[in-house]
Specification:
The protein is of the alpha+beta class and about 525 residues long. Helices cover about 25% and strands about 15% of the residues. A 4-stranded antiparallel beta sheet has the order 2-3-9-10. A 3-stranded antiparallel beta sheet has the order 5-8-7. It has a 3-stranded antiparallel beta sheet with strand order 6-13-14, with no helix packed on it. β9 and β10 form a beta hairpin. α7 crosses α8 and α13 crosses α14. The longest helix has 18 residues. The radius of gyration is 22 Å and the shape is globular. The chain starts with 11 loop residues before the first helix and ends with a helix.
Length: about 525
């Protein structure tokens, strides 16, 4: 598998020592080196979260759904496949040739609930799921498709699913936002230390999850201000795409997996509730398949062929990028940062001729230029402003989405831009978090002692035990966006326009309606 690996080019101390707030490029360079230092929570020797999560999944078999429906799977995944999506067509290429699904464990039923990896990772939705696709599957099988399982498809494993109306309620977050429940044990200590977890969960508003977090059978066994928090926290997150994985620097939203082999085991033991982990051979098959596929938008309803007239869209061009990329390839502190992240559609900037197709292509090119050139005043972003000690950091879209023509973090960068915020300070304007649980955490030790946070998802703090990580989540790879709505880790943005509106309001950018339309036109071609 070809993946980026974390590297330490410069320490944050040295970076900050040479930066000033007045020098924008240097400030962005400091951001790019924030995640270089090795975090103890990333140590593969730490299995605390894994043991707790798998034990919880196995205990929840007390609420086992005995539905016998099997996963429908095509016999072959061709070497090049196109599927329609709301914006046109999305395509996947396999450099190693077609895959016989009967010969690869990615498509095998390795658990006890008739699920496979393919249950939540399908090509027509960018190798994840969309809310629309989940709704279609519910309607087709009246809620019997393998994605609808109590362990994580429901808001809580104890939910009632005895009637169709009950199923609609139980699977409401999966149906409306494509969210899967993740049950994680609150760490008692900071991994690989004897230091206690720095925070306590002092209150929980469970909303639609029927008390899943506050029921000691399915959730927390102790919480409140007077003693350490123990038990399971249920958070609700979008399944990440299982394609374009060669570009990853962080695995899972909270970075909890050390590698894809470990992830294949944990998914099988957790989501599929298997009795035994996959064998090394099965792990190799899973990782080889998902590491060998590349997915991108191929056709646009308005601009048509995304490789026409000198453009460079589609999955083949994306796959060709990987061999030449190195960790921190766009590191400004190293003297070679550019905010010009994407150049896929530069050829369309001055495209000749009239008509609706050329007008659509010009709009996409303008959106690409906006992504590359728009200045953003970065404020109140945990993982950037607090670490740098700078109230305001000048940046661009590429400050965080810096991998050229991919839009991923080229180094690890867990941050909280406000998406996980559950409080009143307006850090998540325009996002729909109405049905998500809200946790209030207070810091009892460490550098943030005395601080209180209100979030819909504690994020990386559930792995690290650190207050500084509350609400922090990685950003996803930006390719294949059009087929996988809704957006953000909690599905709080229903459309790409909602995403653009969030950034515009959150950071006071001031986009016009025409600029927003151009940005959306560009993003849906990735």
């Amino acid at each position: 598998m070809s993946t980026f690996v974390e590297h330490a080019m410069h320490s944050l101390r040295n970076t900050l020592g040479q930066c000033t707030a007045a020098v924008a490029l240097c400030a962005v360079g400091a951001v790019a080196t924030l995640a270089v230092a090795k975090d103890s929570a990333d140590d593969p020797a730490n299995h605390a979260w894994q043991a707790g999560a798998i034990a919880h999944a196995q205990r929840m078999r007390a609420f086992f759904d005995r539905n016998s429906n099997q996963q429908a799977t095509p016999p072959i995944i061709p070497s090049f496949e196109t599927d329609t999506d709301p914006s046109g067509s999305i395509a996947t290429t396999q450099l190693g040739g077609a895959t016989q699904t009967s010969q690869n464990a990615f498509f095998a039923n390795l658990g006890t609930n008739n699920r496979t990896c393919f249950t939540c990772h399908q090509p027509q939705t960018g190798w994840t799921v969309s809310a629309a696709s989940v709704q279609s599957r519910f309607n087709a099988g009246q809620g019997t498709d393998p994605i609808f399982r109590l362990i994580d498809g429901a808001t809580c494993p104890s939910d009632d699913i005895s009637t169709l109306a009950a199923k609609l309620q139980a699977y409401s977050l999966l149906l409306s936002k494509g969210l899967i429940r993740i049950g994680l044990q609150v760490p008692t200590t900071i991994p690989n230390t004897t230091l206690p977890t720095e925070y306590r969960i002092i209150s929980v508003d469970d909303k639609l999850s029927n008390g899943c977090n506050t029921n000691p059978i399915t959730g927390l066994t102790n919480y409140g201000p007077d003693s350490p928090t123990t038990g399971i926290v249920s958070v609700y997150r979008r399944p990440l795409p299982s394609t374009n994985l060669g570009f990853l620097t962080t695995i899972m939203w909270d970075g909890r997996e050390s590698d894809l082999f470990s992830q294949s085991v944990d998914a099988t033991m957790g989501h599929a509730q298997a009795n035994l982990p996959p064998t090394p051979e099965q792990q190799q098959q899973i990782v080889a398949f998902e590491s060998g596929i590349f997915t991108a938008q191929f056709l646009d309803n308005n601009a048509e062929n995304l490789k026409a007239a000198g453009a460079n869209g589609g999955p083949d061009a994306l796959a060709a990028l990987l061999p030449g990329l190195t960790p921190g390839v766009n590191d400004p502190f190293g003297g070679h940062f550019s905010s010009q992240i994407f150049d896929l559609f530069q050829a369309w900037e001055d495209i000749a001729g009239g008509g609706p197709v050329n007008a659509a292509r010009q709009s996409i090119a303008r959106g690409e230029a906006l992504f590359n050139n728009t200045s953003i005043n970065i404020t109140r972003v945990a993982g950037i402003n607090d670490v740098l000690g700078m109230t305001s950091v000048p940046g661009f879209c590429g400050t965080c989405h810096d991998t050229p023509d991919v839009g991923n973090h080229s180094i690890k960068l867990p941050i909280n831009i406000g998406i996980a915020n559950g409080g009143p300070n307006n850090d998540n304007p325009g996002l729909n978090i109405a049905d998500l649980p809200v946790f209030t955490l207070t810091c009892v030790s460490g550098p943030n002692v005395g601080n209180t946070y209100t979030v819909t998802d504690p994020g990386r703090a559930l792995i690290s035990g650190k207050c500084a990580d509350i609400g922090k989540i990685k950003g996803p790879i930006l390719r294949g966006l059009a087929g996988r709505a809704p957006y953000f880790h909690n599905g709080s943005a229903a459309t790409l326009l909602d995403v653009v509106n969030f950034y515009d309001q959150r950071f006071g950018i001031g986009f016009t309606d025409a600029q927003k339309a151009d940005l959306v036109a560009f993003l849906q071609t990735l």
